[in-house]
Amino acid sequence: MATLREVRTRIRSVASTRRITKAMEMVAASKLRRAQQRVEQVRPYARKMDEMLSHLAAGSSDEIMHPFFEIRPVKRKTLVIVTSDRGLCGSFNANILRRAMQWIQANQGTAFEIVTVGKKGNDFFKRRPYPVVRFVGDWGGVLKYDKARALVSFLTERFSTGETDEIDILYTQFFSLVKYRVNEERYLPIAKPQVGEGGSASDYIFEPNPTDIYAALMPGYATTKLVTALADSFASEHGSRMIAMGAATKNAGEMIQTLTLDYNKARQAQITKELLEVVSGAEALKG
Amino acid sequence: MFRLSIVTPEKVLFDGEVKSLFVPGSEGYLGVLSHHAPLITALKPGKVEYREKSDRTAVLALGGGFMEVSGNKATILAEDVEFAEKIDLSAAEAEYNLQRSRIAAHAKGDTSVDVKAARAAMERAANRISIAKEQR
């Protein structure tokens, strides 16, 4: 059994760790609230945009002419991986990166390149022999619409100029505090919108004409798609961290309890021992 | 009466019943009343005006976007739209001057300036300024 002093030191160190994890849990909780709001704010916009796009497709002729829809034979692919900038968020990054490796396995045959969002993903690929063509770090705090646009224009340009023929994005979709899922989505080319049922849609008036509306709408659509993915990932990261830190705090509490028990046992044992010594010393004198 | 919603990536700016709506369409300003024919249009920077049930009119500065009208419902999607009374006039003026100086720098040979973007931003700032002044 450990000595009294050792146990005491351990209790103290675990207690201070618990203070830290507790604080982190609380910080994550408040950040999560904001991130969650953001997810909820961007969703109506994304939904309306989807709607408009499908009406546009329904109303215009079969030939949807916008470069973002162009399906080419795939010579080169791009994978965008959204991870967090900071660690201590449970299995959040591990899950994403595991999926990323699966994607890479599945695409061994074709040339591919990687775009990382978040430092953790970049650190991961730094040590591996895959080409990272662009890295966006410190994105968490700056989840603004216009900041995301820089990345979007990089991706769309690469696609339009034929540098890459397909772009996939890996991110974590946020459902609720306890539910998130790694999601793999085709970013470009964009699937031609499904023509909704209800023939009346074809009566739409287009101003100036569908092609021009597409030209104006698609960059915004691409941005919205990315922003949604980022917002979801960000909320998931904080949710994940909050739960990981909550569990850590709880474990620290349990550990302190066992250690305290050990400490008390050791203390009692020592007292008993001392008592025994005194008593047997007295007995010896008597004899 | 028909339903109007103005949605931005940050929030739903307005969602309610209105009597009429006036927007800067890509082919010129257009008015929307109840039971308008289905329409999808791009919007230019300009002034958006709607009249609520109580006959209160609201004016917004729009930096471009899209509008869909269908089934007695109009939806405006915009990244940059603001109520006239909420416009920060000094910020808009600062933005205007900044973009102007950037365009001037480009004319002098500074190639780092994206003139097209700067022109568009200047136009949006000018639009905000004129709408804000008009309301005061």
What brief labels describe this structure?
heterodimer; A: 287 residues; alpha/beta; 5 helices; 6 strands; 60% helix; 15% strand; elongated; B: 136 residues; alpha+beta; ATP Synthase, domain 1; five-stranded mixed β-barrel
SSE topology:
The complex is a heterodimer of chains A (287) and B (136).
Chain A: H1 4-59, E1 76-82, H2 92-106, E2 111-117, H3 119-126, E3 132-136, H4 145-160, E4 166-176, E5 179-188, E6 205-207, H5 210-286
Parallel strand pairs in A: 1-2, 1-4, 2-3
Antiparallel strand pairs in A: 4-5
Chain B: E1 2-7, E2 12-25, E3 28-32, E4 39-52, E5 57-70, E6 73-78, E7 81-83, H1 89-107, H2 115-135
Parallel strand pairs in B: 1-6
Antiparallel strand pairs in B: 1-2, 2-3, 2-4, 4-5, 5-6, 5-7
Helix pairs in contact in B: 1-2
Q: Would you kindly provide a written description of the structure presented here, covering whatever features stand out?
A:
Chain A has a single domain, classed as ATP synthase, F1 complex, gamma subunit (Pyruvate Kinase, Chain: A, domain 1, 3-Layer(aba) Sandwich), CATH 3.40.1380.10. Helices cover 60% and strands 15% of the residues of chain A. Chain A is built from 5 helices and 6 strands. Chain A has helices at residues 4-59, 92-106, 119-126, 145-160, 210-286, and strands at residues 76-82, 111-117, 132-136, 166-176, 179-188, 205-207. Chain A has a 5-stranded mixed β-sheet with strand order 3-2-1-4-5, with helices on both faces. Chain A is elongated, with a radius of gyration of 29 Å. Chain A starts with a helix and ends with a helix. With 136 residues, chain B is α+β, with helices and mostly antiparallel strands. Chain B has 2 domains: 2-84, F0F1 ATP synthase delta/epsilon subunit, N-terminal (ATP Synthase, domain 1); 87-135. Chain B has helices at 89-107, 115-135, and strands spanning 2-7, 12-25, 28-32, 39-52, 57-70, 73-78, 81-83. Chain B has a 5-stranded mixed barrel with strand order 1-2-4-5-6. Chain A binds chain B through residues 41-42, 44-45, 48-49, 51-52, 55-56, 59, 145, 200-201, 203-208, 212-213, 216-217, 220, 224, 227, and chain B through 5, 7-12, 25-27, 30, 37-42, 66, 68, 70, 75, 77, 79.
